[in-house]
Amino acid sequence: AAAGGHGLLFVGPPGTGKSMLARRLARLLPPPELEERLEITQVLSAAGRWPGGLAPSRPFRAPHHTTSYAGLIGGGANVTPGEITLAHRGVLFLDELPEWERRVLEVLREPIESGVVQISRAARQATFPAQFQLVAAMNPCPCGWLGHPSARCRCSPDRVDAYRSRISGPLLDRIDLSIEVPAIPPDEIAI
Hints:
The protein is of the alpha/beta class. It contains 8 helices and 9 strands. The two termini are 28 Å apart.
């Protein structure tokens, strides 16, 4: 996934290392080349976060699942970049994917395809770069314990289906790899 820049979804119970794996992925990416460093720095500058020189590394952004539509895509009275632009040339990590508002997640579809985000407001229009690697994580069910070897899932099949259907098919189509991250029983872990 890191080598090819593929979208990635980790599915597994709490505590299996989904978030840890996502955070490590950014370190597997090659260092940004000069042109990419310039682009990353320009984005930071447009957001009022100029690092005082060229950005040294690829960004890793992990917004909370309560992030608003404008917080993810950008906007405001003085149109500013959102999280998807702040992740330009790096990784955008969305934890607890089904907990995100569906309408907020749907704004990702076009930027994933085009690599840019266009924001139109009455007073101003802006186009920001948005070439990021999407990495997401989710539990297998609402309670999180479906398939866990020692915890009991208390979710009905209908509840599991409803939980998983919070993510639209078109968005899932833009995620190239889905990886199950199972819980490993403690007696199988050698320290």
